[in-house]
Every structure is written in structure tokens, then in C-alpha cells.
Structure prediction request, 310 residues.
Amino acid sequence: MSESNCSKRFEASNGLALVDSYLAILKIQKQYSEHTCNNYRLQLDKLIEFLKKQAITEWSSIKPIHVRQMSAQLNRQGYSSRSIALFLSSCRSFFHYLISQDVLQLNPAKNIRPPKGDKKLPKSMDVDQINLLLESIPSDTQIGVRDKAIAELFYSSGLRLAELAAINLEDISLKEKLIKVVGKGNKTRIVPVGTKAIQALNKWFSVRSIWQKDDQQSALFLSQKRTRLSHRSIQKRLEYWGKKVGLNASLHPHKFRHSCATHVLESSGDIRAVQELLGHSNISTTQIYTHLDFQKLAQVYDKSHPRAKK
Prediction:
């Protein structure tokens, strides 16, 4: 059977329309971001392509063996365990939707797990690297003042890129040292802002009015075009300062977030507080930082314990 005929039969059986309906629910009802919805579509496109090659044209014909075969194929193609886990999670969620639509009776991806892979720890900077970077961003230019406020706020509050870019003036209380951010799933949380970040923000506010196009512009961080600073522009500015200071690895927003979480956990040992700070709905997501802490403990132990030395 040709690939084009398979595609037609999928359409005839309402297959592709079901995918569109599912993605619409993610975007409208669950308020997933455009990026997340696009990622789900990419994963489901992989599934559909595989099913076409297997001449499977009805969702109801999918069995666990087919999902296992697809997982094995991705593994052979060099996909990481994490990427395969994302694929399986996307399929599992979509099949759950098909059950709700009476298309499937059982979820064929329910008990299928990705191959085990090395658990990658988040990359972070040590305190000295952070201090070097933040102290090296000059305050003698308007761009420098803005960029330093961005970097200080990232590190101070452990924000995601999308969270920082979306902040408006009314979201900040400099007096109370708090900021309101909207995280994943459109969930709002209040996070603290450190003294250094408050100082950097005050300097930015002293020049921000020069960049403001009109009174209706409420974005906290503006571009030289007088518009809200885009995600890509923020990333590029951080990359610029990372190279300027001479950091060996690429500097990106998530590195500030990981560094903030790691340093707070090392100092306090309070994983619940770090969970609240980062806006993790599940503490298992935050527990990755305990691995960082234990890794540091192991290094100290190996260097210090009399019976650990070779």
C-alpha cells in the first residue's frame, strides 16, 4: 500500500482530525504554550509516519507491540532516552484522549518505558562564576543597565525565560521585594527578589522611560525598538556577556535557574522551598537538584575521608 493511500485512509477514518482536536484542547483548555503544543505535534507526526509504513490506518488497530517497535526504532536511530520518553509520554496522553472519544478501549502505551539512559544533571555555575559575570556587566550604558537587571533577576528568582520575558511593571513590588510570574500551565506564583536584583531593577527603571514608546507599554524589559524584549533577544544578550566575561560554556537563561536552585538548596537543604521557588508542580522534578548536592558531597568525601583516599 502506498504512503499516499495510507494518508487518505487516515483522513477518512478521522485520524488526523483527532490529532488536531487533541492539540486544540491542549492549547485552549489546558493553556499549553505554543512551543509545547508544537512539540506534541512533532511527536505524533513521528507516530503517524511509523504507522503509515506499517500499513496501519486505524487508531483502533494500534497494539502495545507497535509502540514498542517505534520506541526501539527511535533507539536505533540514536535518540536519547529522554527524547524517547517524551515521545512515549506524548503518545500516552494522546491515546488517553482517544479512549475518552471511544476510539480506543485500552492505552497501548500505558506500561511501555523508554530505555534507561544516563541521568543528566542540570548545568550550573558556581558562586564565583556568577559573581564574576554579574559584576562584569557594566552600568555605564543603558543596554548594560538593562542586561544587568535581567541577569540579576534570573539568578535571584530562578525564573524561566518565558516567565521573565512576560513580566509587566504591575507584577513587581520593589518595596516588598516580590514579583508575580506566570509559569507553565498558566499557573501564577509569587517569588522573592534579592537585594542585588532590586538595586539593578531600580537602575533600569531610571532609564527605562527613555526607551518607552508610550504609556501603554507595560513590559518590564524593552528593546531599543521600544517593544517588549523577545525571548531570542534575551538569549543573545546573555550569550554576549558570557563570551565577554570568558565563561567556557554557553550562557543561557536556564543556567541561571539551575544555579539559583542549586545554591539555595546547598545553603538551606529545604527542597520544598526550592520547589515553590521554581514553580515545580511535582517535587520529583525538583529532586534532580538533590543529585547535584549529593554529587558535591561525594567529591568532598573522596577528598577528605581518610579511608576514601587511594
